[in-house]
Write a structure and sequence with these properties.
CATH architecture of the largest domain: 7 Propeller
CATH topology of the largest domain: Methylamine Dehydrogenase, Chain H
CATH superfamily of the largest domain: YVTN repeat-like/Quinoprotein amine dehydrogenase
Low-confidence stretches: 1-23, 413-422
Number of domains: 2
CATH class of the largest domain: Mainly Beta
Structural class: mainly beta
Oligomer: single chain
Radius of gyration: 24 Å
Strand order of the largest sheet: 1-2-3-4
Shape: globular
Number of strands: 37
């Protein structure tokens, strides 16, 4: 515990004094650096996965997923708090046991769905469990294996998965969808169901909700894998599904005109290849003005067959930008014939903006033999028109990062030299034998720390660049603390063998 807190202090101190600089559009915002090191619960040499990011009014973040607990090596972490510059707050912590948790915000609460499908509610500031909700849930006698949640403005919510009323009793009933009131009581007046799992919810307007999954009918009305329902649970028969199969389908964004952007990896009527992004008219028909058939692809182009393991096709998230464009993220690496490392910018009609994300993009910087499972789970707008990007990754354009980064806004203009002038560059990273450190300002002292906060090396170059031998350092993560006349920078780097 003491060594971890010591490392935490070093990391937080460094993060707090990093200097903001101008840079190219969507470049890495160096003023945000996570001091929490995300690791996989089952293998601490691999990066952990973040599936949801919630930004509060004070700029702090609540992250959910599945990662290693630094305070207890025998358990995992599920929900944690970072400050607006990435500082880890150990006072807010919710444990997990290797599984990935989903979170949803309602006012001062966080609802959570665990890997086993259990549902609970926490205080959003302290992380403490809400005993009133837990008591009402038990007294109402419902439970089950829950997949997802949709929150209404009054705090009531829909649950999908397999929700069981009279849980554990002989007269128990189960359904693919159920409604729970804001206090945790099962709504016995809700009588609607699908004939298969519902995976995703998305608010369509104030009265309706889009649902997708692997069902073929809702309330006995044929709707293959996609439907729109009213808030009371009844089906909106004006929406029709054009889907015929695939391994993933999710509603990503509703435009102000009611058109729907869908993502995943799916088939549609009249087309025999997998597509990953499509735009629909409000009635569910395909919008031909959108670039539906030439977006995400494999290295060889569009595929006719796809399995659940071919992650280079998946699109998981869509975030609109103020200039009427879209950021898409997922597991893909090619889009419209161009290499794009799991993130792209398109115009309003889905055509690629070739001026951004031209590097290697989101990737693994840890030298793994396979990049299976890597990608972006979510992109959300941050304050000051920036963007949080999170998922399971450890590199951005070859630079080592944690799987939560913040990007500068689209109109954040400047040139590469300005980033270098006000910052500190380390290459290569990861490194084997040496690292090269460069700045456009004089570097008076360089210190290297390990993760326990122990000072390992001191160099006093008194110049703008220096080469440091790291061949004697064991493989792992380290911090560099570089001091100039008026500034101090802290950067992470990794040594591999």
């Amino acid at each position: 515990m003491k060594t971890y807190l010591k490392y935490l202090y070093v990391a937080l101190f460094g993060v707090c004094i990093i200097y903001e600089s101008f840079s190219q559009p969507f470049s890495l915002d160096e003023t945000f650096q996570s001091s929490y090191i995300f690791r996989n619960y089952y293998d601490n040499n691999e990066v952990g996965a973040i599936n949801k990011v919630i930004e509060l009014e004070d700029g702090s973040l609540r992250l959910s997923g599945g990662f290693f607990d630094p305070f207890n090596p025998n358990r995992g972490a599920s929900i944690l708090k970072l400050s607006s510059i990435g500082g880890y707050d150990p006072s807010f912590f919710f444990p997990g046991y290797g599984g990935s948790i989903k979170t949803f915000r309602y006012q001062d609460y966080l609802y959570l769905i665990g890997q086993s499908g259990t549902t609970n509610r926490l205080d959003i500031q302290t992380g403490a469990l809400d005993s009133v909700f837990w008591y009402n849930k038990n007294s109402s006698n419902w439970d089950g294996t829950i997949n997802n949640m949709f929150l209404f403005p009054n705090g009531d919510f829909l649950l999908s998965g397999w929700v069981t009323y009279h849980y554990g009793l002989p007269d128990a009933i189960g359904s693919a969808i159920a409604r729970i009131d804001k206090d945790g009581f099962y709504d016995t007046t809700f009588h609607h169901d699908a004939d298969g799992p519902i995976g995703e919810f998305l608010k369509y307007d104030t009265n309706r909700v889009l649902i997708t999954g692997t069902f073929e009918a809702y309330d006995f009305v044929p709707r293959y894998r996609a439907a729109r329902i009213f808030n009371d649970g009844s089906i909106d028969t004006s929406f029709h599904s054009i889907y015929t199969g695939g391994s993933s389908l999710r509603p990503l964004y509703i435009q102000p005109d009611g058109k729907i952007i869908m993502g995943g990896a799916f088939y549609i009527q009249g087309f025999d290849k997998i597509i990953a992004i499509a735009r629909l008219h409000p009635d569910g028909s395909l919008d031909s003005t959108f670039n539906n058939f030439n977006n995400v692809q494999s290295e060889l182009g569009l595929l006719q067959n796809i399995t659940a393991w071919e992650l280079e096709y998946y699109v998981n998230t869509c975030c609109p930008t103020p200039n009427n464009k879209y950021l898409f993220g997922g597991g893909f690496r090619y889009c419209q014939g161009k290499y794009r490392g799991r993130i792209v910018l398109t115009n309003y009609n889905g055509f690629l903006d070739t001026t951004v994300f031209t590097g290697s993009g989101i990737d693994s910087a840890l030298g793994y033999p396979s990049d299976y499972g890597y990608g972006i789970a979510t992109i959300i707008p941050a304050q000051n028109e920036k963007y949080y990007v999170a998922g399971r990754f450890s590199g951005l354009n070859g630079q080592m990062v944690e799987p939560i980064i913040r990007l500068n806004p689209h109109d954040h203009v400047g040139i590469e030299e300005q980033t270098e002038e006000h910052g500190l560059m380390i290459c290569p990273n990861p490194a084997r034998d040496k690292i090269n450190i460069k700045s456009n300002r004089n570097i008076e002292e360089i210190e290297i720390y390990n993760l326990e906060g122990q000072l390992l090396q001191i160099t006093k170059p008194n110049k703008i660049e220096e080469s440091i031998d790291v061949s004697t350092l064991p493989p792992g993560y380290y911090f560099i603390r570089a001091t100039g006349r008026d500034e101090v920078f802290v950067r992470k780097f990794v040594v591999v063998r």
